[in-house]
Amino acid sequence: MILIDERLPKEPLHSEVVLHVRRHLRRSLRAGRGTAGDLALLFGLSSDEEKRLKLRRALDSASKIEAAAELIANARTAKPSVISLGHDDEHLDRCRAWLRLRKAEERAFDGIVATDLEMLLELSKARDYATGNTPEVPAGLAIPILIEGETGTGKELVARAIHDIWVREQENKGGFHVVQVSGLPPDLINDELFGHVRGAYTGAQSERPGRLEEADHGTLLIDEIGDLPLAAQVRLLRFLQDQKLSRVGENRERQIQVRILAATWHTLDEDIARGAFRRDLLHRIRVGWLRLPPLRKRRGVFTDVIPELLHKLGQKALPPITRSATEALSLHQWPGNLRELVGVLRLALSSAGGSTVRLEDLPPHLQRPYLEQPLFKRAPGFLCDEADGQGLTAELASWRVKEVARSLDALEAPEAAADIAGLHNFFATIPDASEDHKTVVQHLQHHQELTREQGRLTAIETEWRQIRSAPQLPDEVVRALVEAQQKALTKREAVDLELIELSRSTHLIESPWFKLLSEIREIPVFAQQDLMRILQGFIPMVTLAVSVFPDLIEKVRSFSSKGSILEQMRKALGQTQPSFDEADSATELQEEGTTNESADQDALPTKPRDYSREHWEVVLSHFRSKSSAARFLKMDQKTITSHLRRLDIEERWTGNN
Questions:
Q1: Distance between CA atoms of 24 and 38, rounded to whole angstroms?
Q2: Is the pLDDT score of 601 beyond 60?
Q3: Model confidence, pTM
Q4: Peptide bond into 138 cis (omega under 30)
Q5: Residue 390: other Cβ atoms inside 10 A
Q6: pLDDT bracket for residue 583 (50, 70, 90)
Q7: What does DSSP assign to residue 608?
Q8: Would you say residue 405 lies in a domain?
Q9: Three-state DSSP class for residue 604
Q10: Domain Sigma-54 factor interaction, which positions (predicted)?
Q11: Cα–Cα distance measured from residue 512 to residue 40, given in angstroms and rounded to the nearest whole number
Q12: Does residue 481 form part of some domain?
């Protein structure tokens, strides 16, 4: 028996799309309407693979999907025990094509422009909901649907399409009605929805049916239902329970049958948390749930939707819009979504006067963000524009690409890595006049410069790849881009080789100061610390030590040739405990009640009043607590406090005193 793996893509939207398509394919196969192509799509196979495997044989089986899995497994060299359903990028492209076909088959969607995956999915769900019925009382009533989306996303268009499908499928002759409740006072909303009888209130000279009654046997879209007052929400909830209502001012109930659609820009779950919307009403209206994405989040929508919109608006020129104009439109956030976009396109068509819409035809607030980009960001647009507007020769393409290259050369190099910059700063601070030490400083400086240049050239390469990946570039442009990208690659490889050669140098490793730094990092208290943190404390300590002990540099160089520098320093100082360099480690053994009473103090002035501000800063940086510093310095804590106050130094102890 072959097991079927129901694997899904990683991205949530892609998983939702795949599950949606699988559900339809399975329903079709179970109902006996399925085809071999449906089986191929379910398992992520191409039409050629479907024919080669002769998947149509599985349609004769009672278990069509399991039979197809057996056919697929038997055709493979090493017969697997598990066959996966389609889930990869290629399968996702086929699912997109399936959704586009499903939209195209439904004429009610003709007025809705959608090519992106998310919107196509919502339209497919809308088609399902349009003919879906609920088993609740009254039985067979079309399910309510909530349509969420920002202003201008097409909520009313989708609602009307749902009504058109429902009316056609159910052979219903009811009409489509819309009531806008936003901004209406509560009393007027009740009257608008439920109507009134004569004398219901002052001025009610005649009876009036509400919008719900007017929509009997049809559809009522309650637009901006999130703005419905709580009192009106209660009355609407009661109506939805049994489809009965009473007009304002009357005692009898009227039985009607209305399909309720609701639209809102609110996030109703958040309104419920604020107490502005009833949870039980949300459960009634959100049986079907559509969430229309804003224009700025619809992937690839501008390259597909804008030409279609222009065509609907009467554009005859080819191409209808230039590449640069399309890219400028894609940079805008479009708070008004499609409604705002259509208005801009109408203005642009008027400016273009029947010819192709160009960048200069767009409003200035849309031109500016595009023009503020560096030239290399605008390269695909203007290169394609020139190819469309004139005969683009190889010479012109090469010249234009060289302009892009000059723009890329202006890219600033990124900051050097923190550890390399920290090492350079450390070595540059040490007043070691030896030639080998100067060489180390120069090598570290050169390493910083090369690393930054490597980062800059890598960024340039990335930009070239992005420019080349732009669709529909003319062949002349592609050839010029390939040549420019190869030059950038050659430069970067040269820097890579130089860095490799520099890394082979032994100057840094042989430096006594690097050896000392390495030994300090092996001390347990420093082993887990970041290099930059160690260097930040080590640099002022070395500076202080050199100022107190002028022969320290020669001592360190001498000790380096005899083994461990720290061990040699201990011996020279007659110590058996860690030196001042390790004082932080030694003095923090507070849990064991141990202290470093024998630690050397010769690196500091004999009298506390002679301590400079720099001396005290070193003390603060190397001792976590005042008590540990007091033990090491052999003075009481009050004395330390008084000296710090005298020099106006803030106490920054991190440990318990």
A1: 9
A2: no
A3: 0.72
A4: yes
A5: 9
A6: very low
A7: G
A8: no
A9: coil
A10: 112-350
A11: 69
A12: no
**Are 219 and 280 members of one domain?**
yes
Residues 97 and 167 in one domain: no
Rounded alpha-carbon distances, angstroms, from residue 165 to 55, 138, 338: 33, 21, 23
pLDDT for 626 equals: 83
Which contiguous run of DSSP H or E holds residue 586? helix 583-587
Please tell me whether residues 325 and 283 are part of one structural domain: no
Q: What pLDDT score does 303 carry?
A: 85
Region 143-172: mean pLDDT is: 92
For residues 233 and 325, membership in a common domain is answered with no
> What is the distance between the alpha carbons of residues 304 and 312, in angstroms, rounded to a whole number?
13
Q: Is the dihedral of CA 461, 472, 342, 363 positive or negative?
A: positive
Is residue 76 helix, strand or coil? coil
Q: Is residue 596 part of a domain?
A: yes
Higher-confidence position of 191 and 351: 351
Same domain, 280 and 333: no
Q: Which residue has the higher pLDDT, 477 or 135?
A: 477
DSSP state of 603: T
Per-residue pLDDT, 655: 63
CATH code (residue 254): 3.40.50.300
Query: What SS3 state is found at 147?
Result: strand
- Quote the CA–CA distance of 432 and 447 in Å, as a whole number: 20
C-alpha distances in Å from residue 4, one per residue of 24, 28, 65, 84: 18, 19, 9, 6
- Residues 125 and 114: their CA atoms lie apart, in Å, by 14
Instruction: Quote the longest CA-to-CA distance of the chain.
Output: 112
Which residue is it, tokens 């002022």? 540
Instruction: Assess whether pLDDT exceeds 90 at residue 372.
Output: yes
Q: Write out the residue range of the structural domain in which residue 338 sits.
A: 310-372
Q: Say how many CA atoms lie within 13 Å of 84 toward its Cβ.
A: 9
Q: Around 596, how many Cα atoms within 13 Å sit in the side-chain half-sphere?
A: 23
Q: At what angle do helices 475-503 and 375-389 cross, to 10 degrees?
A: 160
70 and 96 in a single domain? The answer is yes
> Residue 367 sits in a domain of what CATH number?
1.10.8.60
For residues 184 and 215, state if they share a domain: yes
At residue 299, the pLDDT reads 83
Task: Name the helix (H) or strand (E) containing 24.
Answer: helix 12-30
**Contact present, 492 and 450 (Cβ < 8 Å):** no
CA distance 53 to 611: 89
Q: Tell me: do 276 and 314 sit in the same domain.
A: no
Q: Cis omega before residue 319 (within 30°)? A: yes
- The token pair that represents 313 in the structure block: 């608006």
SS3 content of the chain, % helix, strand, coil (to 5): 60, 5, 35
Residue 89 carries which side chain, given as an amino acid letter? D
Q: At what angle do helices 64-74 and 12-30 cross, to 10 degrees?
A: 110
Number of domains in the chain: 4
pLDDT tens figures, 212-233: 999 999 999 999 999 999 989 9
Mean pLDDT of 24-28: 94
**CA angle, 300 then 306 then 312, to 5°:** 140
Residues with Cβ within 8 Å of residue 228, at least 6 apart in sequence: 181, 189, 222, 236, 277
H helices of 57-185, in order, are: 64-74, 89-105, 117-130, 155-170
385 by Cβ neighbours in 10 Å (0-12 / 13-18 / 19+) ranks as buried
Position 140 scores a pLDDT of 54
369 Cβ neighbours under 8 A, 6+ residues apart = 328, 331, 332
